[in-house]
Amino acid sequence: WFQWRGPNRDGHSAEAGLLPAWPKSGPPQVWRAAGVGNGYSSFSTSGGRLYTLGARAGIEYVVALDRATGKKVWEYQNGRRYENDRGDGPRSTPTVDGDRLYVLGGSGDLACLDSATGKRVWTVNLIQKFGGVNPYWGYSESPLVVGDRILVNAGGSRASIVAISKADGSTLWQQHNDGAGYSSPMLMRTGSLNQVIFFTDSRTLAVDPRDGRLLWSYNKANNGTANIATPIVRGTRVFVSSDYGTGGALLDVRAAGNIATANEIYFTRDMRNHHASSVLVGDHLYGFSSSILTALAFDTGKPAWRDRSVGKGSLIFGDGRLYLYSEDGVVGLAEASPLGYREHGRFTIPQQSGQPTWSHPIIAGGLLIIRDQDNVFAYDVKNR
How do strand 12-13 and strand 313-318 relate by DSSP bridges? Predict the structure, then answer.
């Protein structure tokens, strides 16, 4: 699980042999750790380490934990603490690429670290370097590595989307004028043409990662407040969605040579993703449409079912089950089936922060990793 939303940025865990149902009290807790700091960042993991970001006092940190025990291995100071009215601290998830770690802090500090030691290789501040404007609730994007470069929505004038060399932090290109959204980009491969899809503050767009050239854009799925969910990509189709009364759209992307177009297949108000993205399992999307868990046929937009489930939250998928995490600290396990909502266990973490639990869960090494601000919990979900 080396980046935001897992190996393919789609919320899927490849692990098998997980518990099909939980005991009444929930799966066994393996460890609990404190000290990662405030923030909504999720985790990436590789080589037995967990990586995340958090804030203490006036500083944001990148933190590495031992995955088996939760003990801190190292930490790195990554710029000043981001502060706002919905909770301070960083929001993004580190990206592991070989022996390097790429992280983006809430105040725009993009850093490359040695993943084993936390030693800095290079750092770039998006506001200072590109004239980026930090969105109201802070930079939240998780870095996407494509080949020899990192692509990020800096939100600057003539530097909205930028490509940065992952080797030394130098600028490879900068393009466009959109403000930064809160979404993380996705890579789509169409024949010989790679496309990187961003959900900025004002539209969905795709660029050529080689030079930043605009390939296509679409503006019906965005709202004027916060575009957050990560685009869902399957084959030549892209689903993009936002809340605040807006909805989602399925786009069909066609490419010939270096030219690409995107055409709307449908627009729906039955899937309005707020802070969490949907997962695509088989032919159905499963996601929180505002506060209601919804199953939606991917190719037609037809709802299969709706359920209040654990309450508004986030979700990932593993071994036939949906792992649900509400913003009130309730964790649930349900079938990923279009036939109806069937729950197979739930429990509540001991919340202490008083903030909504917006940090998304991950599954790694048979462990379900859950965060509530400074506190991290690991549960054994392996069927032993």
Answer: parallel
